[in-house]
Amino acid sequence: MTDSPNEKTLRNVLLISGIDGWSVALFAGFCTAVALLSGEWIGVFVGGLITTCGVLELRGRGRLARGKIEGIRWMVRAQVIILVTVSLYGFQQLIAFDEATLLEGLTPDMVTVLDQAGITVDEMRTMLRPIYFGFYGAVMAATMVFQGGLAVYYQSRQPKVGEAFATRQQALLAVPPKG
Q1: What's the CA gap between 117 and 115, in Å, rounded?
Q2: Rounded to whole angstroms, how far apart are CA atoms 113 and 119?
């Protein structure tokens, strides 16, 4: 017997949420540990929150795997929290842009590497703002596409997943009792 389209949808949602949940939890957990070792407390908070969202997505996936449709709400919520957290962090970084502080952070070794590449500190100064804003803009855009896209994906699959659960329930009720 082949799977119905609704069962395939359920299986795909479970696969995607497993991959994404573990990826988010492990990567954000690693970043949180690095931030902790660096003493970057905002990074620890943001990383910890995103790590928690990865776990939240996995818990939602677990509920879904046990036949509980509310697992999708957990998964959508996790994506939205990640999207909002990264966006707020990115905006905070853009607002806090300080060229002088960034240039003070250049170590002598970094200046040597720049010199070897034929780039002076003054030339670096002119590139700093576009690189900085481009980086945070790209991170926020990627988060909007991926986390926003996953939230929409999960939410849009809820009716088919619900139908798969209803079909399973009907099949269980249709089985004659043994005896």
Answers
A1: 5
A2: 9
List phi, psi (to 5°) of 105.
-75, -10
Residue 156, judged by CB atoms within 10 A of its CB (0-12, 13-18, 19+), counts as: exposed
Expressed in percent and rounded to 5, the helix, strand and coil fractions of the chain are 85, 0, 15
Cα(131)–Cα(31) distance, integer angstroms: 21
pTM recorded for the entire structure? 0.85
> Which tokens go with 168?
């399973």
Taking the C-alpha atoms of residue 119 and residue 172, their distance in angstroms, rounded to an integer, is 71
Averaged over successive runs of 10 residues, the pLDDT of the chain (179 residues) comes to: 85 97 97 95 96 98 96 98 97 92 87 88 88 95 97 97 91 74
Q: Is 82 exposed, middle or buried (0-12, 13-18, 19+ CB in 10 A)?
A: buried
CA 17 to CA 79: how far, in whole Å?
Answer: 10
DSSP 131: H
